[in-house]
Structure formats: C-alpha cells, structure tokens
Amino acid sequence: MLLRPLALVLFLLHTTACVATVPSWYLAPPADTASHLYGVGAGLSPLNARQQALIDITSRLQVRVQGRLKAHTQTLNGQVDQRVEQQVESENAAFTLSNYELYESAHDKNTFYQLIRVDRPALMAGLEQQLNQHLEQLSQLRQQPMSSLRQFRKLNQNLTTADTARALAGVLEQQQHPVPDLAPLSWFERRLAEHKANSSILLEFTDTSPQTEAFVSQWLDDSGFQVSGPNPIAILKFNIDAQPARELFGQYHVRLDGKLTVVDQGQIVHTKRLTSTGVSSLSEAQAKAVAEQQLLKQIAGENIWQLLLPM
Predict the structure, then answer these.
(1) Burial readout 171-189 (b: 16 or more C-beta within 10 A, e: otherwise)
(2) Which CB contacts under 8 angstroms, 24+ apart, belong to 221-228?
(3) Domains 27-119 and 201-308 share a fold
C-alpha cells in the first residue's frame, strides 16, 4: 500500500524538476525611474533575448525602430564588454539606443532571459542629438535655391528624414524632454503638402495617337502628378517619328522612334529615346499600332523621377 503514495511523490518531484524556471524579474520587471528604463526579453539565444528586451523599451516609447540599432553592452562587473549590431524592423522611425547595461540574465533549458537597463537622461540626450541632425538636413534643403521640380524631388527624397524627425520629436515630448525648434520640419511638411496639391505637368504630344496620349496621361496620374493645372512644375514632350514601312515575306515591319523630353524652366533637363518595331500581316497601320504599344510598355517601366530628373 505504501508503494503507490511513494510513486506519486517521486512523480511529482520529477514533474517539478522538469518545469522551466522563469526568473522573477522577468515576470515582474523593475519599474522605470527618472534615471533608468528597464526592458525584459526571452529568446532562443542571448541575442534574441536582447532584441526582445530592446523592443520592450522602444514599444513603451511609442516609437518603432527601423534600420541598424547599435548598442554597447556590459555586465555590471565589467567582465563582458562587446559591441553588437542587430536589426529591429518596424514602420516609423530610426534611432540609436545606446548606453544600456545587461542588468540580469538567466538560461533555462532552451530559453535565454535578459533584463537590460538604459540610462534615461543619456538616451533622451542622444535622441535630441539625432533630431538636431535631421533638422539640420532639412534646414539645408530649405536654404537651397532650386526650381519647383527639383525641390519636389528633394522633398520626396527626404521623406524618411522628416518622418524620423517627427517621430523623435514625439518621443521627446512624451518623455517631457526639451524639444528643439521644429521650424525646418514644419517648413518641409508645408512645402510637401503644397507641391502635392499643385504637382501638375504640362503634356505636349507630336504625331501620337489619342490612345497613346490617354495612356501617358494616366501613367503620370498614377505616379502622383496632375496632367492639368496652373503653374506646371515641368513640361513633358512626347513625339513619335515613324520610319518608312518595309514589307518582307508578306509581313509589314514598322519602326518607331519615340522621344520623351523634360523641360524645366525653359531648359531641357533630360531626353529619353525609345525605339520599337511592330510586325503585322494585316496592314502597315496595324504594324504601326503594334510598335506604338511596345513604346507604351517601355514608358510604363520607367521610373518617373529617373525620367524627370536623372541623377
């Protein structure tokens, strides 16, 4: 009769020994203070656990991190000193989270646990420095004299800079840290909105069919440009030169030479030449129509900004 209770005790001891031990500081992390932020993470490796701990902190800052995150880690006793680089994917902003300590760590079975501590004043000072760098970049753009077309392109090229600056400013405001003058960012957002509302391009066609003209107009519209409106930021000319048709073995061959010309403030800034050949057994007109369709396919594959303002 004593064998059954003894077996039950041994079973319970074995079961308890097999249960993973989760650190108490992982279940109940320390509260953030004026001097430090705390984050916990778990993963299949120390790097995975550290990444989750960093995300734990950045998520509370209401900022999603994108791009390369560089940090200097060290244990409290100074025995571990290494630099790590890791990727944390997200949507809105990119910033460097630095000067954090590996405060506690544990390993049980196949799971690693880490508790990290970030110097809060140092973090805010670093974010402010990054924000100032982005604002300086926008300020330089503001001071550069350029045509409306070139400014529109520059604005689009600096969208990530502006988005990051806005996100960093939001973090500093949330943390009640002084925010630098955001005048360059406000100017950028205002100018971008104005350009988007008035980004018209004047189209001029020569020897093109109504179908081609409608296609090019729709292509520009799909790219975010208006095809009519006051004060166009550029002129886009498209003309087609048809070469004499040739008839070979009952097939009509027609070659078309197309040319796209971009005019900015009265000056030609780019010319793109296109060539296509159409073949048809029905007629010369049908062969020309086939060739024109080939030209349109080439236009559809063009990057709009590479066409308007190639580097």
Answers:
(1) bbeeeebeebebebbeebb
(2) 223/304, 224/196, 224/199, 225/199, 225/200, 225/201, 225/304, 226/198, 226/199, 226/200, 226/201, 227/200, 227/201, 227/203, 228/200
(3) no
Tens-digit pLDDT profile for residues 259-310 = 999 998 888 988 999 999 999 999 998 999 899 999 999 988 888 877 877 6
Strand, helix or coil at 246? strand
**Under 8 Å between Cβ of 291 and 252:** no
Q: In terms of CATH, what superfamily is 201-308?
A: Lipoprotein like domain (3.30.160.150)
pTM for the whole structure? 0.64
| CB of 236 closer than 8 Å to CB of 261 | yes
Using one digit for the tens of pLDDT, what is the confidence trace for 194-215? 887 778 889 999 988 898 899 9
CA 21/CA 253 separation, integer angstroms = 79
CATH architecture of 27-119: Roll (3.10)
Using CA atoms, how far apart are residues 189 and 209, in angstroms rounded to an integer? 39
Task: Name the 3-class secondary structure at 162.
Answer: helix
Per domain, the residue ranges of the chain are 27-119, 123-197, 201-308
